[in-house]
Design brief:
Layout lengths: L2 E5 L4 H11 L4 E5 L16 H13 L5 E11 L13 H4 L9 H12 L7 E12 L2 E14 L15 E3 L4 E2 L5 H7 L1 H13 L3
Parallel strand pairs: 1-2, 1-3
Antiparallel strand pairs: 3-4, 4-5, 5-6, 6-7
Length: 202
């Protein structure tokens, strides 16, 4: 019987990244049953690792199995690591208003506004995974992808900051590359693959 890890997310992009990374590992990735009915914890930790552990431990108290949680986002060097743990709520936190069709687009517009006139564009996507059971973190792992922030968005794939996140070695943004390429490069996929050797101890 394959090892089942329940994920503390309903985000289809994250579920896809984890499932692809788990291919050929003998591990089954499943959303935590009844996740929608469980009140979400307040993600009040200052680091990706802190929030990942908080979520994994919290949701693992709602099942007898293993729970995998992540905290991930964008860190921009010139902005001293912003938006960091607030990546999904970046524009909201700043009360930034702009004509946008989605939260992702509004966050991208706010990032461009913050970086107006800044020449240093280095950034990284980061993901920290935590695996917990019965309220206790068992393992953590880290994954990252280095890139640059463009001055205008490019591409229509992916989500989050992908249209602005440029990969110099490919000459394309995360929103322009194929799903196959993205799964190979994904910070979530890299974090999951870093976690695999630890899972052998379960």
């Amino acid at each position: 019987m394959p090892l089942t890890l329940y994920t503390a997310t309903t985000n289809p992009g994250k579920l896809r990244d984890f499932s692809i990374a788990a291919t050929d590992s003998g591990i089954l990735i499943q959303p935590l049953p009844n996740l929608h009915a469980i009140p979400a914890p307040e993600e009040d930790q200052p680091t990706f690792a802190g929030n990942a552990r908080l979520k994994a431990e919290y949701y693992s108290r709602h099942t007898s199995g293993y729970v995998l949680a992540d905290d991930s986002g964008l860190e921009v060097v010139a902005l001293h690591g912003e938006p960091g743990v607030r990546s999904a709520r970046y524009a909201q936190d700043a009360n930034f208003t702009a004509a946008a069709s989605s939260t992702d687009e509004r966050n991208n517009l706010y990032l461009l506004d913050r970086m107006n006139g800044i020449a240093q564009r280095s950034a990284r996507y980061r993901c920290v995974l935590a695996l917990a059971r019965a309220g206790k973190t068992l393992f953590t792992a880290d994954g990252r992808v280095e890139g640059e922030i463009l001055t205008t968005p490019r591409g229509h794939g992916g989500f989050g900051y992908d249209p602005l996140f440029f990969l110099p070695e490919l000459g394309a943004t995360m929103a322009e590359i194929s799903l196959e390429q993205k799964h190979t490069l994904s910070h979530r996929g890299r974090a999951f693959r870093a976690l695999l050797p630890q899972l052998a101890n379960l």
